[in-house]
Description:
Layout lengths: L16 H15 L3 E5 L9 H6 L4 E3 L4 H13 L3 E7 H7 L1 H9 L6 E5 L17 H6 L5 E3 L4 H13 L4 E4 L20 E4 L4 E5 L3 H14 L4 E5 L2 E3 L3 H10 L2 E9 L4 H12 L4 E7 L9 H8 L3 H13 L3
Parallel strand pairs: 1-2, 1-3, 3-4, 4-6, 5-6, 8-9, 8-11, 11-12
Antiparallel strand pairs: 5-10, 7-9
Helix pairs in contact: 1-7, 3-5, 8-12, 9-10
Amino acid sequence: MPYGTTYNVDTLELLTSYEGYGRTLVELGTAHPEVVVLTADLSRSTRATDFFAAFPDRAFNLGIAEQNMVGCAAGFAASGLVPFVINIATFQTMRSFEQIRSDFGYPRLKGVFMSIWSGLSGGYVGATHHAIEDMALMRLIPNMAVLAPANAEDTAAATRAAYDYPGPVYIRIANGMDPSGNEGNPFVLGTMAVTHEGTDATIIACGVQVADANRAARRLADDGIKVRVLYCHTVKPLDTAALLAAARDTRAIVTVEDHTTIGGLGGAVAETLADAGAAARLVRLGVPDTYAPIGYAPELYAHFGYDADGIVRAVRQATSGSG
């Protein structure tokens, strides 16, 4: 069994998202000798150990010096290598924001920033590790793509897609293991996938919240409310065609994200609808303008109303015209 993994399996079926990208990095490293991996003293907890074992001369532990790590990654990128920079989401996006912006965004250098403990997935550690602002920060950077895959299979696919993208990519990773509803279909960066059909309302979800969005849609269908679910694994560039079609076809749009409702998926959807002059009722579920308490992720999702129960309530309210 590879060092640091959780399951002794040979497929992605039961892997965590961390292990999904860990094995994919080895796959990419085997096929592409220009791939290098950098971590900030987190190779074991970020599941980069397989790559470190396979390619010790292309794996670098920079210690707890995040800004320096991004600077080194930019040097690699400017020299023709493709760096995958792995860190905890809060430290990756906040401590290193200036370096990511100026060293990767401005020159449009190719590099992939893979961030674990996104959203409230590390909720039990406390506010310093609650990454509820990361998508908003990365969306601000020109040339940066922002991905939020749902599970191990899609995290692996996102990692491959990021290698092919002609610029910097941010991938936020939680420990998703539930099906996304898009199994067997290609992962196309810049698109949304329809995982449930409906005409009464649309739920747009990213990351691990896709599973609860699908659960909510099935429950609402039992009550006669037909809900379309759009799995938005790419928050930037946003699939505007799918969004505007949803605004045209359904009465209401509910966005669901493990992130503040300011500047993330909900913000991107609101901006796009406003720019297009689209007439659709919009409800944004996520963390409101506050800090989260300490707790386990499912408890916090319920606390803020973006678990399956909360999504059902929001869709019922939006389609009834009340509230």
